[in-house]
Amino acid sequence: MASSSSFLLLAVLLALVSWQATASDPSPLQDFCVADMNSPVRVNGFVCKNPMKVNADDFFKAAALDKPRVTNKVGSNVTLINVMQIAGLNTLGISIARIDYAPLGQNPPHTHPRATEILTVLEGTLYVGFVTSNQPAPNRNKFLSKVLNKGDVFVFPVGLIHFQFNPNPHKPAVAIAALSSQNPGAITIANAVFGSDPQISDDVLAKAFQVEKNTIDWLQAQFWENNHN
Description:
Radius of gyration: 21 Å
Number of helices: 4
CATH topology of the largest domain: Jelly Rolls
Largest sheet: 5 strands, antiparallel
GO molecular function: manganese ion binding; oxalate oxidase activity
CATH architecture of the largest domain: Sandwich
Strand order of the largest sheet: 1-2-9-4-7
Number of strands: 10
Subcellular location: Cytoplasm; Secreted, Cell wall; Secreted, Extracellular space, Apoplast
Structural class: alpha+beta
Function: Produces developmental and stress-related release of hydrogen peroxide in the apoplast. May play an important role in several aspects of plant growth and defense mechanisms.
Helix content: 10-25%
Shape: globular
Order of helices and strands: HEEEEEEEEEEHHH
Distance between the termini: 58 Å
Keywords: Apoplast, Cell wall, Cytoplasm, Disulfide bond, Manganese, Metal-binding, Oxidoreductase, Secreted, Signal
Protein name: Germin-like protein
């Protein structure tokens, strides 16, 4: 019986390890696979450029991430450097972003469907948090939050709804985020729900949010601005 239990435990552990191995960007099978953006072939990621034609510029971008950005009406600007900006990131499973926050600005609730995010505050103060996935009562959708100061680091697990907010009414804030995918994706919750094209039926949303349909119609009529560049 003990031997059988040990075998079962080993099988479960191996299954978890193998699942983790497939839950992120695929590992490279060579030194690099610079994305060939001109190839007509469509794969999960990008076809490799001929390595004999690769040069240093394939791994470089003059991104000026040290320069402040103009924020939008929600008070933030996300400057993402992923495989679309640096072709050499293809298959390497990483990207980076500078996030600027106006006074009282926020990077509104959103998710990255393909990446865990680790955020470092460079300037100012941020109130940040994320919400866990649906769980049985009494721990349904637990909210975890923290106030971060300059130099502090916080992790947002892959796929979970999270946000950052600058509570200072007088000073901006800046953060740098590293993400565990060459193309992490971003789904801003309000934009996706109320600003989709075509729109989600107001009957569906009124039932989901337990509000009147005219409230949903008003929300859908707003301009849902994207803060990701």
